[in-house]
Amino acid sequence: MEVGTVVQEEMKFRGVEFSIKTELEEGLLTVEISDVMTADQWRGEFDPAYIEDLTRKTGNFKQFPIFCSMLESAVSKRSEAVALDLLTYADLELLRNRKAGVVGRPRGQQQSPALSAKRYLILIYTVEFDRIHYPLPLPYMGKPDPAALQKEIRALRAELSALSHRGDTRPSDYETRRLRAELALVREEKEALAKALERLQGAGAGATPGAAIGLRDAVRSLEEQLLRERAKSQRSASKRGQEQRVLMEQLEELVALAIL
Q1: pTM listed for this prediction
Q2: What is the CA radius of gyration of the chain?
Q3: Hey, CA dihedral for 238, 240, 244, 250, is it positive or negative?
Q4: What is the per-residue DSSP string for 122-152?
Q5: Which tens digit of pLDDT belongs to each residue from 149-202?
Q6: Per the annotation, which location comes first and is thus the protein's main one (predicted)?
Q7: Residue 196 DSSP one-character state
Q8: Residue (of 117, 252, 229, 121) closest to 182 by Cα position
């Protein structure tokens, strides 16, 4: 997981759908989850010292960059060796007691509201004959502030408008003109090579096979270059379209949350 990477996916825990977002900044891992239905949010920030101390206590130490990569793989579901779970404090206590060999649920204890409201995102690392649980505590942040949502909506709208303008006009027109110019150049070169090839073929025995083969290879090389440029342009347009769709989905989600 590289610095500046943001990973966001939706997952179900015990039948409830949550949105999970992880972000890695310089020396800081941010984890945020939100209930898709109620919009309740939990958020935690973790520095390298905290993460490495947490992993050391489990008996399976991981360096901060490795842990972040494991978490990214679990969120994006790219590896069967890591998975996620979401627990309350009572669930976490039960898990600890089971690991310690205590049978049954822990005796009821009065918990503070802040502790009861917390959630723990558990990174589960499965190795041969063992499973390691890394709990990340996430304090309850409440529901989104409507004013903050409106501000983010305006920022997203401005960014979406700028992206749409940039994607639909100047870059697209520029790329079209560039490709047309390259196509015209390739056609001219191909025609010139074809004429030269005809002259060699008309010369009969006087034309060397090596020269004809070289001309054919040159034509083929130019055609392949043109195809690569076309594919490059299509990938660029597809990437801009994907960015626009992501921004539009985020905008629609924020508008829906602002109505709650």
Answers
A1: 0.56
A2: 29
A3: positive
A4: EEEEEETTEEEEEEEEE-EEESPPHHHHHHH
A5: 667 667 777 767 776 666 554 445 666 666 777 677 766 766 766 666 666 556
A6: cytoplasm
A7: H
A8: 229
